[in-house]
Amino acid sequence: MGADMDSYFEYLNIEEAHLHTRLALQCLETVSRLIVLHEDWSSDIDLDLARPVSAVSAAVQNLIRVGKETIQSSEYAIFVQDMPVALKRVENASGLLESAAQLMQNGDSQSLTQARAKLIDGSSGILQGTSSLLLCFDESEVRKIVRECSRVLEFLSVAEVIYSLEELVVFVKGLSPVLTKVSHSVEARNGELTITTHREQLARALEEVKTLTPILICAIKIYCQIRLTDSKSGLEESRMNRDYLISRMRDEMEEMMRVLQLTSADDDEEELNKNRKNVLMSHIQDRLQIASDWIRDPESPISGHGTKCLRETLSLLRKLKFPHLTKGIEDGCSMTESLCEMKRTGNENNLQARESLAKALDAHLKS
Asked: Nearest Cα to 90, choosing from 40, 38, 30?
C-alpha cells in the first residue's frame, strides 16, 4: 500500500510539472502573439487588427484554461490565491484589445485615438499578467524544492535515533532517493539564477551536502558498531562525531533553503542585520577561549567540552554567511578533524606534528 501511495504522489508531481510547463509555454505563446500584433500595428496604422487580435485572444483563452487546470491540481495555497488575479488581469486586457480592434473599424480619428489607448493598455495588461503568472509558477517551483529539502531535514532528525546497522540500512535506502531528487532540483535551479553570489552560495552548500553525506553514514555506522561491543569504548566520542556531522549537514540544507528563497542581491544584507550578527559574535566569543584551551592542551579529551565548543564555534562562523570566510571555516573544520584523529590514535611518533597542527589551528581560529 505504501509503495502504491508513493507511486500515486509521484504521478501527481509529474502531472503538476506537466501543467506548469504548459502554463509557461502558453504564457510565451501569448506574449509572442502580442509581439506580432504590436509589430503589425506599428508598421501600418491602417491595418485591420481583427485577425491578429483574434490570435491574441485565442492564446489568452488557452492560457486561462491551462491556468485554471494548474490551479485545480496545485497544493500550494499561495499559488492558488495569486493565480486567479493574474488570469483575470490577462482576460480583461484581452477584452481591451478586442474593443480596440472594433473601434479601428470605424475609421474616424476619435475612434483611432481611443483604439490606440486601449491597445496600449491591453498590451501592458497582458504583459503584466503573464509576468505575474510566470512569477507565481517560479515561486511554486521554489516551494517544491524547499519542501524536498525539508524531507532531508526530517531524515536527519531520524539519524539521531539509529542504534543498529539494520536501522541504518533502512535509513540509507530512504534518504538516497530524496537526496538525489534534491540534488537534481537544486542543480537545475542553480542554472536559472542570475545573481552570481546566489549561484555560488547554492552550489557550495550542495557540494557540502554531497561531501558530508557518506561521512555521516560512516559515522553512524561506527556508532552502531561500537554499541554492539562489550566495552563500548569510544561510544560517547562516536556519538558526538555523529551529532556534529548531523548538525553540519543540517546547516548546509538550511543554507540551501535560505538561498533558494532569495529574490534580490540585497536580501543577504537585509537578512543578516546588525543585531543578528552581534548575537552570533557573542556566542562565538563565549566558546572561543574554551576551544582554544582544548586545542593547546595535548592531554585534552577528544569527547570533552572543548571539542564541542570548537565545533560550535566553526558552525556559528558558518552561520554568519560571510563569503570571504567560507574557505577559512572549511579549512578550520578539516584541521579540527585531523587533530581529533591524531589525539585518537595517541601515537607518540606524531607528537610533534600534532603540536604543530594545534598551534596552526589555534592561530587560524583567532585570525
From this structure: 30
Q: In the predicted model, what is the mean pLDDT of the chain?
A: 77
Q: What is the pLDDT of residue 273?
A: 56
Distance in angstroms between the alpha carbons of the first and the last residue of the chain: 57
Query: Mapping DSSP to helix (H, G, I), strand (E, B) and coil, where does residue 161 land?
Result: coil
3-state class percentages of the chain: helix first, strand second, coil last, to nearest 5: 85, 0, 15
Q: Of 213, 16, 69, 50, which Cα lies nearest the Cα of 119?
A: 50
d(CA 171, CA 165): 10
> Which letter does DSSP use for residue 191 in this model?
T
Is the separation of the CB atoms in 155 and 176 below 8 Å? no
Q: Work out the widest C-alpha separation in the chain, in whole angstroms.
A: 101
Q: 136-157 pLDDT, tens per residue?
A: 777 778 888 988 998 999 899 8
Name the grid cell of 296: 593547546
Q: Within 10 Å of residue 92's Cβ, how many Cβ atoms?
A: 14
**195-235 tens-digit pLDDT:** 888 888 899 999 999 999 999 999 999 999 999 888 888 88
CATH 1.20.120.230 in the chain, residues? 14-137, 160-266
Report CA torsion sign: 310, 322, 199, 140: positive
According to the CATH classification, is domain 272-367 in 3.40.50.12160?
no
Q: Is the pLDDT of residue 2 over 80?
A: no
pLDDT of amino acid 3: 40
Of the candidates 196, 163, 316, the one whose C-alpha atom is nearest the C-alpha of residue 247 is: 316
Q: Where in the chain is the domain with CATH 1.20.120.810?
A: 272-367
**What would the grid cell of residue 249 be?**
549537514
Grid cell at residue 119: 491597445
pLDDT of residue 92: 86
**DSSP state for residue 250 in the 8-state scheme:** H
**More reliable by pLDDT, 27 or 184:** 184
What is the C-alpha to C-alpha distance for residues 42 and 36, in angstroms, rounded to an integer?
Answer: 10
Neighbours of 149 (CB within 10 A): 21
* Reported CATH class of domain 14-137: mainly alpha
291: cell is: 576551544
Architecture of domain 160-266: Up-down Bundle (1.20)
